[in-house]
Amino acid sequence: MIAVIKKGTSDKQLENLTSWLRAQGLDIHLSRGSTHTIVGLVGDTSKIDAELLESLEIVESVKRISEPFKSANRKFHPDDTVINVGNTSVGGDIFAIIAGPCSVESEEQVLSIAHSVKAAGATMLRGGAFKPRTSPYDFQGLKADGIDYLIKAKKETGLPIVTEIMNANHLELFEDVDVIQVGARNMQNFELLKELGRTKKTILLKRGLANTLKELLMSAEYIMAGGNENIILCERGIRTFDTYTRNTLDLSAVPMLKELSHLPVVVDPSHATGLSRLVKPMALAATAAGAHGLMIEVHNDPKHALCDGAQSLTPEAFADVCASVKRVLDVI
Length: 332
Description:
alpha/beta
């Protein structure tokens, strides 16, 4: 349920209302927009008389929300959420480009790529320290050493860093990480999501390879229910019957998620297609579809990459994508 508050309502009047609602056992989500203030009621709202609430002097209207996701719902928060990450932001009119290697392979490698992607226009550096792999015999990442190399790259370039977490027990290693990524395989690892909800870190939440948009938003809700509202949603392709690409990039998810939620939405065309030659057209399409940013894999020697070399761009190819994306942004 949401209550739209009339313009001109004083802070004291609003405080009296929210105190009364909390006394009914409800959690309150307050959103101050450019024209209206929204009071979101989370919990058992069946005990609230909607007509009585609407009759209050400061209340303009009351609506019940049928969707199971509340805090992530745009009805609770009409304006786009803009998330500050280090020296940059994502959301609203601010477009983010997150780039870097699939896996951190060495200090030299990640430093070289970090300088290259920053020069091309990246606003954040990604790199996998813990790697979930289908085969137990594949490279699993450098783990704590990988995070240390990312932190050194952050100090040299100023780029905020994004890296994936696999286990809540590793959280202490992520103290200096700016954005914690929850990968597709962990999208419904609810115990992990609860732990991340207790942090104040920005969470980049990837859609699972066989999950609906509602399920993605409910996973975001798990994090937000713990008090952490710093969430970036990521569309990275879903598994279909086609075999020519690694996954099928669902670009309709971008405008749909923007309609349903106020959270920023970014697109990962690298994992979506699995083919470097398809990254540029899908990056441009995602930008035109209204994404708030892109997440692109870049490697200085893709042929010899320890992970996902086939979908990684060279620094030169990445610079070309960035220039083309800027032209699309100028148009739209």
